[in-house]
TrEMBL record:
UniProt entry keywords in alphabetical sequence: Membrane, Transmembrane, Transmembrane helix
Top-level lineage group: Bacteria
Sequence intervals crossing the membrane: 12-38, 50-68, 109-127, 133-156, 189-210, 222-242
Organism: Streptomyces dysideae
InterPro entries cross-referenced by the UniProt entry: ABC-2_transporter-like
UniProt-recorded name of the protein: Transporter
Length: 254
């Protein structure tokens, strides 16, 4: 329904997607401005940072396209309209993900793919079969990890009810964090992003393997191939959180 509504005004849709592409592209413009003054950022060159950016932005773009509307859940809980979703013969999580589905978010994905494509050409890497195969695996795993964060954030709204910005701090904020190399952040933050909220497996760890750089924290060499396992673990935890939140729902009482 939302897609048909969007495509009813095709010119508006194209303009909106293009505007979304330009708006999200300002993040990378900021990085370009930094490199206009320096040769490296935390010891990473522009193509290497672009590689980080492309992996994170593309993975997040797909998760945002599918589950980016999860932040409306708090509003539905407050006004009682969430009850409508419970009586429909369809999974509640799928309904929340499809609520206000915004096809304009394709602009974010396009922008991330463009940066990643340029980085893959410009980065100085001796490509091997494992490294080539790792890139698409990381993109899929990263999208799943971000998706799990969206679901976990939505589950938290069953308790807080007005926590959309808290959710965005970990989803959109986590994406922004991963745009930059881990060497520019404090060690405690990097450890937290690796072992507590495993965002590092979206790009930092696999990118370090591809670029033949030290891992951001003390990890075994095979950790670069762990993103699928991390994604499965994140999904399991997010699923448990979602079920717990759904069971705790008691409507508005009005």
């Amino acid at each position: 329904m939302w897609i048909r509504s969007t495509m009813a005004y095709r010119t508006s849709f194209v303009i909106t997607v293009f505007g979304n592409l330009l708006l999200t592209g300002l993040d990378f413009v900021a990085i370009l401005l930094m490199f206009s003054q320096v040769d490296s950022l935390g010891g990473w060159t522009l193509p290497e940072v672009a590689f980080l950016y492309g992996l994170s932005a593309t993975a997040f773009g797909f998760a945002d396209l599918v589950l980016g509307s999860m932040d409306v859940l708090g509003g539905r809980i407050r006004d009682g309209s969430f009850d409508t979703l419970l009586v429909r013969p369809a999974p509640v999580l799928a309904q929340v993900g499809a609520d206000r589905f915004a096809l304009r978010r394709l602009g974010r994905i396009t922008q991330g793919v463009l940066v990643l494509g340029w980085a893959l050409v410009a980065v100085d890497v001796e490509w091997t079969v494992p490294k080539v195969l790792l890139v698409p695996v990381v993109l899929v795993s990263g999208a799943v990890i971000f998706g799990a964060l969206f679901v976990a954030g939505a589950a938290f709204q069953f308790v807080a009810q007005d926590a959309a910005e808290v959710q965005n701090a970990f989803t959109y904020g986590g994406n922004t964090l991963l745009h930059y190399p881990p060497t520019v952040f404090g060690k405690d933050l990097v450890r937290g992003a690796t072992f507590v909220l495993p965002l590092a497996f979206v790009n930092w760890v696999p990118a370090a393997y591809v670029l033949e750089r030290p891992y951001p924290t003390a990890l075994p060499e095979w950790a670069a191939f762990a993103p699928p396992l991390v994604a499965v673990g994140c999904c399991a935890l997010a699923g448990l959180a979602w079920r717990a939140g759904l069971r705790s729902y008691r409507s508005t009482g009005s």
